[in-house]
Amino acid sequence: MxxxxxxxxxxxxxxxxxxxxxxxxxxxxxxxAFIYLGYKGIFEALVMIPMGIAMIGVNAGxxxxxxxxxxNLYVDPLITDKDTLMTVMxxxxxxxxxxxxxxxxxxxxxxxxGIGAITEINxxxxxxxxxxxxxxxxEFGTIFTFPIAMAWGFSPADAxxxxxxxxxxxxxxxxxxxVLSPKLLVPIAVIAYMYLALVYIxxxxxxxxxxxxxxxxxxxxxxxxxxxxxxxxxxxxxxATAVLCLLFPVASPLFASFFVGVVIKEADVKGHLEFxxxxxxxxxxxxxxxxxxxxxxxxxxxSGEVWKLLVLGCISLLLSGLGGLAGGMIAYKLSKGKxxxxxxxxxxxxxxxxxxxxxxxxxxxxxKTMILPFAMGTNVAGVITTxxxxxxxxxxxxxxxxxxxxxxxx
Length: 410
Hints:
Layout: H1 8-11, H2 18-39, H3 45-60, E1 63-64, E2 70-71, H4 82-88, H5 95-102, H6 106-117, H7 122-126, H8 128-137, H9 140-151, H10 156-163, H11 170-180, H12 185-194, H13 197-210, H14 213-216, H15 230-247, H16 252-267, H17 270-295, H18 298-301, H19 306-334, H20 353-365, H21 372-399, H22 401-408
Antiparallel strand pairs: 1-2
């Protein structure tokens, strides 16, 4: 008997192809890096720390499930047979969570409920036209990465799923991938959350290179923001939910989830508000990171499309940032210098990260500049426009494939 057989995690490293063994070791190291970067605040700690631990666990804890099959005790996303699934759900400890909250899109909806419960819509309602127009400009990446991905050989469904990364909205990426490209859910979702670091790292450099410092520090008049009553905000939520769900039924779970959080906040239903903004949001985010980490195995990474997805995700986010800044510069010119163009960057709907980045850059250029309220308006509008783009993608691809074939010449 080989003594290593007692230590299955080590033993299986020598029972697989060298490339798989090396990838497992690398993923363990990457998991450790995610934990460190989350701890340091470079990556989103709420997602990346549990993701890192799960990556270490699943790649180190590989074992023989029977005499010939190597696997793990975490989760298997590829099971379709119902009888096999019922057996596996009693063996793999994350399988019930995956099947009951991931495969049906519940987890992104729960996160959206929590996000809605902590979101201020005052500023978007105060300047709705400006906020929505800038948010549309910041969808440049989500729209134009689609033909790039198609040209690179991806199917319309896969191209749409990776394009949504440009909205920098993790739950939206999850929902779109689950509906259109479940086989690419793991790499796309991981890329989406990894690339949120671009918001903090790359966007400031883009601003520095493209926007003169004097313009970065353009002050905006806070007195132009009107007071919005709770009654007005609740009325807005009712109308927005009805209209958006009527227009984009395939994205209605996202709209309803986001706006139920908003209306609970504005109606000040304390018990629900504490649950949505606390236990539900943090619990769903924790399991999001932990399950995604458990899905990130060597087999997933060694897929030939992963590296293309990495490139396309980066392109999508960079194009969205550039689109938002371009829209901001147009608004700056049309307003004769009364609108700070950096609020366009907040149209990339990573709430509230891009709005904070915009404020930080503006303050660095001019200590008297306060643009955060205006940036938050664009930020919230970006959540809505990204959901609309996701709804259009899903509707066109699932309901009207002939339209996509016509557009792409297929």
